[in-house]
């Protein structure tokens, strides 16, 4: 067999070139997909936050960034957490207003929620009553103590705040909105305790268990 015949049957360089080209094409496609997924998640996050703000009668501009929308929602929830809702006055008569306010003062304030802590996996669970989203003084103190005493939480790269929603308790949309409010108020509480916002991750998880749907969890990741 001649040297010319041997050179004609050597396909290895062409195979290497084809494999290299295919690898480069696949890498490029994966980069495009990653960018597309990121942009889609940013768009969905902005859309969800804007919807929640509009449902709370808070104005938000169309060109606002997701971070600006989230900060505005946190500020709105923080104000709601500190201010009790006044009873609606159906008549403008001063006597009626005084009677309503006097009746409000007679009623004992309702406990917003209870907190149970579990050291298993550095997890803190917050249990709520009914449609409550606020934190009372006792629950704030317990959250602060747990976070202070948990090295895993303090040293974690990310802290996850996962609120559970149970559609069985009154509809999927209402349950998810309630869970998101709870998670955002917990996020605001952690920020007030000195945790950096970029370390906090919000998650909303659906569950068929009605009792579990009244809880939120804080844990290290």
Major sheet strand order: 1-2-5-3-4
The major beta sheet can be summarized as: 5 strands, mixed
The CATH architecture of the domain at 113-220 can be given as 2-Layer Sandwich
Choose one word for the global shape. elongated
Could you give the order of the helices and strands? HHHHEEHHEHEE
CATH class descriptor name of the domain at 113-220: Alpha Beta
CATH superfamily of the domain at 113-220: OmpA-like domain
CATH-derived topology of the domain at 113-220 = 60s Ribosomal Protein L30, Chain: A
Give the N-terminus to C-terminus distance in angstroms: 66 Å
| Share in helix | 40-55%
**Helix/sheet category:** alpha+beta
Task: Using the CA coordinates, give the radius of gyration.
Answer: 27 Å
Compute the number of helices.
7
Residue fraction in strands: 5-15%
Mean pLDDT: 72
Q: What is the β-strand count?
A: 5
The low-pLDDT segments are 81-108
Report what the structure shows.
There is one protein chain. With about 220 residues, this protein is α+β, with helices and mostly antiparallel strands. Among the domains are: about 1-40; about 115-220, 60s Ribosomal Protein L30, Chain: A. Helix content is about 55%, strand content about 15%. The chain has helices at about 5-10, 10-55, 65-80, 95-105, 135-150, 150-155, 170-190; strands at about 115-120, 125-130, 160-165, 200-205, 215-220. Helix 3 crosses helix 7 (about 170-190). The radius of gyration is 27 Å and the shape is elongated.
């Amino acid at each position: 067999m001649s040297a010319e015949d041997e050179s004609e049957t050597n396909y290895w360089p062409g195979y290497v070139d084809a494999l290299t080209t295919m690898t480069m094409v696949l890498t490029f496609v994966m980069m495009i997909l990653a960018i597309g997924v990121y942009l889609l998640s940013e768009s969905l996050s902005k859309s969800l936050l804007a919807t929640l703000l509009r449902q709370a009668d808070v104005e938000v501009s169309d060109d606002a960034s997701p971070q600006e929308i989230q900060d505005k929602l946190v500020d709105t929830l923080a104000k709601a957490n500190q201010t009790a809702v006044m009873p609606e006055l159906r008549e403008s008569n001063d006597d009626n207003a005084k009677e309503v306010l006097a009746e409000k003062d007679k009623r004992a304030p309702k406990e917003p929620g209870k907190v149970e802590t579990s050291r298993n996996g550095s997890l803190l669970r917050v249990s709520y009553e009914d449609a409550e989203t606020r934190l009372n003084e006792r629950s704030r103190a317990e959250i602060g103590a747990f976070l202070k005493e948990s090295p895993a939480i303090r040293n974690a790269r990310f802290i996850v705040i996962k609120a559970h929603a149970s559609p069985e308790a009154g509809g999927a949309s209402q349950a998810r909105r309630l869970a998101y409010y709870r998670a955002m108020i917990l996020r605001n509480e952690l920020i007030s305790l000195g945790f950096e916002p970029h370390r906090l991750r919000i998650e909303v998880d659906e569950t068929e268990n009605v009792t579990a749907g009244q809880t939120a969890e804080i844990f290290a990741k």
